[in-house]
């Protein structure tokens, strides 16, 4: 059998569709026999109420949109998992979409979910020039940004990580272990405010721990050729340690280093942002600067729930900033310089 409709239930219970609707919603005055017949028919047929119709009769759909760049990236998968779990605890479901780091795909997803009468949106935004984001703001739909900021969006609260605390801890340990020449791998082509902020933090902190001429920032993109070129330049720089600001770059580069016969944790020490499962499964395990993604996701949901409970946001509100401190976790990929 396909979808069971309210008409199917009414036909089996031998009552009107209006009677079925009222009985199942606890309304109207009906005999005990009619109520029993309707409920038995609904149970026997496996009837599930149409949530869209219910939403039209209610101010709330108990559904929110979750938008992230890429669910294949373990970091964003962990972020969605933490948010979806907490939404479930609040009695909400989620419509999940990915932007694939594309403003067009982001805008297409937003326009689709706006047609679903959702209660709010949590987004890892892609760029400031977005008609979809502008539509969410102009409609004053409860909206929260996580992981990334959008300059100029003064009415949207956001939850981001503070890269300075974790980077400072990593650089301090590297210095104690004798590392004076440290490279950093940035990914500016991603266009992410947060990823770019990490590179800025490294530039600000590194001279204190490495000396003015013993640290350098190298950039790469998603291609294997770019990552290979970056590794070549890092080795030419004679870095004894490297920090990756974007975990997919670290994963790709680990395999390149191994292909060159370079032992991680011995010949070169390695640290990456994002505490993903893959880094704990590798040998040696990879030291990370954790953004505390579970905490970030929970705080994003808490703010959204508060906004939904308070009603639609207003353009006069200033954004709420929640900054989650990053935490350095040392593992065997960082060793003492002999």
From TrEMBL:
InterPro entries: HTH_LacI, LacI/GalR-like_sensor, Lambda_DNA-bd_dom_sf, Peripla_BP_I. This is Transcriptional regulator, LacI family. Residues 4-58 form the HTH lacI-type domain. SMART domains: HTH_LACI (SM00354). Keywords: DNA-binding, Repressor, Transcription, Transcription regulation. Gene3D superfamilies: 3.40.50.2300, lambda repressor-like DNA-binding domains (1.10.260.40). GO terms for molecular function: DNA-binding transcription factor activity; transcription cis-regulatory region binding. It comes from the Bacteria. Signal peptide: none annotated.
């Amino acid at each position: 059998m396909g979808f069971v409709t309210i008409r199917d239930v009414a036909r089996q219970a031998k009552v009107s569709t209006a009677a079925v609707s009222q009985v199942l919603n606890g309304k109207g005055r009906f005999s005990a026999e009619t109520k029993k017949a309707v409920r038995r028919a609904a149970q026997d047929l496996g009837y599930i109420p149409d949530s869209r119709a219910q939403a039209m009769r209610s101010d709330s759909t108990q559904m929110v949109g979750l938008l992230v760049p890429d669910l294949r990236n373990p970091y964003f998968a962990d972020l969605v998992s933490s948010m979806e779990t907490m939404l479930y605890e609040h009695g909400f479901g989620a419509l999940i979409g990915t932007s694939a780091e594309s403003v067009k795909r982001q805008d297409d997803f937003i326009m689709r979910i706006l047609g679903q009468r959702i209660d709010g949106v949590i987004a890892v935004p892609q760029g400031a020039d977005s008609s979809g984001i502008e539509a969410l703001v102009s409609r004053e739909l409860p909206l929260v940004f996580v992981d990334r900021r959008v300059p100029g969006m003064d009415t949207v609260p956001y939850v981001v990580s503070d890269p300075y605390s974790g980077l400072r801890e990593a650089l301090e340990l590297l210095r104690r272990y004798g590392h004076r020449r440290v490279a950093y791998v940035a990914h500016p082509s991603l266009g992410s405010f947060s990823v770019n902020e990490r590179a800025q933090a490294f530039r600000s902190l590194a001279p204190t721990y490495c000396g003015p001429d013993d640290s350098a920032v190298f950039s790469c993109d998603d291609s294997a050729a770019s990552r290979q070129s970056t590794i070549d330049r890092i080795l030419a720089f004679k870095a004894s340690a490297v920090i990756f600001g974007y975990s997919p770059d670290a994963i790709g580069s680990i395999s390149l280093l191994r292909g060159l016969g370079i032992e991680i944790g011995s010949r070169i020490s390695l640290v990456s942002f994002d505490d993903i499962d893959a880094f704990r499964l590798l040998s040696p395990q990879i030291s990370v600067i954790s953004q505390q993604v579970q905490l970030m996701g929970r705080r994003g949901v808490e703010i959204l729930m508060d906004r939904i409970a308070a009603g639609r946001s207003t353009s006069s509100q200033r954004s709420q900033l929640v900054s989650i401190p990053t935490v350095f976790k040392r593992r065997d990929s960082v060793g003492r310089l002999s």
